[in-house]
Amino acid sequence: MKRRTKIVVLGSALLLTAGAASAATASDAPRERTAASDAPRQRTAASDAPRQREAAALTGTAKLYRSAGDDITFSFDAHLAAEDKADPSKATGTFEFSHYLNGEGARAEVKVDCLLTGGKVAVVSGVVTDSDLPGAKGKRVGVTVHDLGRHDRLGYSWASTGSPVDTKGLPKCVSSAPFERVAKGTGDFTVVPWQPEL
């Protein structure tokens, strides 16, 4: 198998916003003033309420270490909402991967279809939606990440087959042990642990 057929992944972040309140004027009637002054308190209380923590997540970007100088990048933006805590197959998001050496290689974009995390380890899978690797589109791939700060590790479902194209009938949330090391200074994966009710 040629090294250029191996694949890697990239990711993104989440932005939340909140609303504002209004105030009553001194010339309002007492009854109106009470109703108007209560409204901002209610809105403030709602906006100050703690957000519910998502059930699981895998985010971040890093390059893998290769002594030959291969440029291998993985990036993730995978999330399992709090309301879907009991069903990891309801995870959403994307990940991307690329592997280049001497100007040759391939990249792929994946739509997440499962996310399982435990402690600092995550397994995510999805179906390739776009790739310049012939035969990769439509294939399911899985990736495992061990979040160890600056020394993260990573594994992928095609470790034993050599290419995602050669992987047949992969189930959701299946991957290999995280045997690869990230390149020094690039470890940026973050895992939010899943806490199912067992």
Describe the structure.
The protein is mostly beta strands. A hairpin with an 8-residue loop joins strand 5 and strand 6 (about 140-145). Helices cover about 10% and strands about 35% of the residues. The chain has one helix at about 30-50; strands at about 55-65, 70-80, 90-100, 105-120, 120-130, 140-145, 155, 180, 190. Residues about 1-45 have low confidence and may be disordered.
What structural class results from the helix and strand content? mainly beta
Outline type: globular
Q: How far apart lie the N and C ends? A: 42 Å
As a percent range, the share of helical residues equals under 10%
- Helices, by number, come to 1
Q: How much is the radius of gyration in Å? A: 22 Å
Instruction: Give the rounded overall mean pLDDT.
Output: 81
Strand content: 35-45%
Please give the largest β-sheet: 9 strands, antiparallel
**Quick one: how many beta strands?**
9
Q: Runs with pLDDT <50, length 5+?
A: 1-45
Q: Which strand order spans the largest sheet, edge to edge or round the barrel?
A: 8-7-6-5-4-3-2-1-9
N-to-C series of helices and strands: HEEEEEEEEE
